[in-house]
Write a structure and sequence with these properties.
Structural class: alpha/beta
Radius of gyration: 23 Å
Largest sheet: 8 strands, parallel, barrel
Oligomer: single chain
Order of helices and strands: HHEHEHEHHEHEEHHEHEEEH
Bound molecules: beta-D-glucopyranose
CATH topology: TIM Barrel
Number of domains: 1
Strand content: 5-15%
Strand order of the largest sheet: 1-2-3-4-5-6-7-8
CATH superfamily: Glycosidases
Amino acid sequence: MVRSVRILCVLLLFAALSVYAGAAAAVRASPGARSGIEGVSAMAYGRPPGASVKAWVTAAALGRGVNFGNMLEGVNEGQWDPSGAVPVRDEFIDVTAAAGFTSVRLPVRWSNHAAARAPFTINDDFFERVESIVDKLLAKGLYVVLDMHHYHQLDGDRLDSGEFAVSARVLDTRFVGLWQQIAWRFRDKSDHLLFELYNEPHGRLTPSRWNALAARALSVVRQSNPTRIVVLAGANYDLSSLSLPNDANLIGTFHDYSPLTFTHQGAEWVSPPWPIGVTCCDDSQRAAAVAPIAAGKAWSDQWHYPVLLGEFGSYHFGDMNSRVAWTRFMREQAESRSISWCYWELAWGFGAYDPIGGGSIGVPGDPPSDQGGYWREPLKEALLGSS
Ligand code: BGC
């Protein structure tokens, strides 16, 4: 009897310890543990094992994508001075899927919707809004690359009007804390959801600072999403500056707007703006355009990770024939190297889709529409038509 009581006690103690260990693990992985972010050690990096089959398959499945740009990465959804922005509409999701795109990159300015102080809580209404859009996109069968965009202070850039600053001491930790919450919130979504840690790290984010910070952020993402595919860019617009974390479920990413004198002619955010009237594409322009794609492929071959051409596009001041020629060329160059791509962007100044009709954004002379938006057919055809 005494013996069986002892055995029972040991079993109860064991059960209690297991429950405690389980709860402790859950707390470690939950956003409730955010106060400990400073203590999370960065994932080791610099000796990456090469990509998993899952990463290769997912990268290929991203296929032909489009950025829902100038929407959720405005200072608020649909609000961004002076560049302008448009709120995400269900219509955009429907037309994107119906046109035959297979993925959407969703840039989000998380930093403007989160507390300035630890634990940097993300506003719940905003979280719900982003989640509802992600869910609708996934329900359409689209892959989604959920991207953090325009945390300007992190890059050391001037803040936009309507953007707030936080204490410089918490900048990096806040970035990690945002990812801890995002990763936890989306942990049960399908594998068609990917995370992209940060768009175009630059400026204050030197390569060494970015490599260390990305490894910290990936470490917290992995607490709740052990195998979700994560997309990573190199600092200074240069994938070769990236020290890959030692993780197999990664995709490298790069952008290509070459030649900028063509793609960014008239862009108001370039100072002074480049002259309008540049056509495309002669041999030297084609050589410039293809160079980043070739470099992306070389990086992929060297490190044995797939790459995503996450942004390419031309601003509306270019003439439509040239834009179509450049867009088709870019798509063909990426696809001939088996690189999936995301056009920048759906429905604003670079847009393949006019959200308003009447050419009020973008292409003067577009026929007016009172039926909501419509595709700029030549651009859509350059992206999705048979070559
Ligand atoms: C930026 C956009 C910009 C685009 C082209 C993107 O990465 O976030 O604001 O319009 O690049 O310059």
